[in-house]
Amino acid sequence: MIYQPEIKPANIQANIEVKHIATCRLPTEWGEFQMHGFEEVATGQDHVALTMGDIDDGEPVLTRVHSECLTGDALFSQRCDCGPQLQAAMQAIQAKGRGCIVYLRQEGRGIGLINKIRAYQLQDQGMDTVEANVALGLPVDARNFVLARNILHYLHVTDIVLMTNNPQKVATLEATGIEVVAREPLIVGLNKENEQYLQTKHDKLGHML
Ligand SMILES: [Zn+2]
User: Fold this and answer.
1) Rg (CA), the chain
2) Of 106, 114, 117, 207, whose CB neighbour count within 10 A is largest?
3) Does the active-site annotation cover 143?
4) Rounded mean pLDDT of 45-69?
């Protein structure tokens, strides 16, 4: 338990039930993972988890809870650090031979791809990531991490070592009932283009960089 009392957990969001659909092999540049597909019961929205090794033995599992970032994860954007963080997490799991990535389809901290492009447009005109969301009348962070808990529980994972720079995420996951026994930083992917963005995440969202 590394909950920091000065960091308030995000509102404990509605319990979104998920059901497991299928599991397959996923060979990658960072070794072979198992990919587990889930659907939200109410909406059919899909999410995946990648796992490596035996993770259901009760020992803490090296885990990344990653929210989808199409621009960073798949299109090599340098506006953020999502792609390098995902890769570093997969690499760390390969090095350990054991771990889990919960990949939630919550694009743009939950506002969706098109709203993210709208927010980027405002950022091109000088706003920061928080100001842009506020100007659009959108939440700064609309992600639901109860989803992550439900997926981890399906995989019989209750104790994790969380790879993140975001103490809010630690607090929120702990509030859902996941035991975060330690936090491992992921300081990767810094570049000229995302310097200001990462500074804002540090100053306004409490990220540790
Ligand atoms: Zn990103």
Assistant:
1) 16
2) 106
3) yes
4) 96
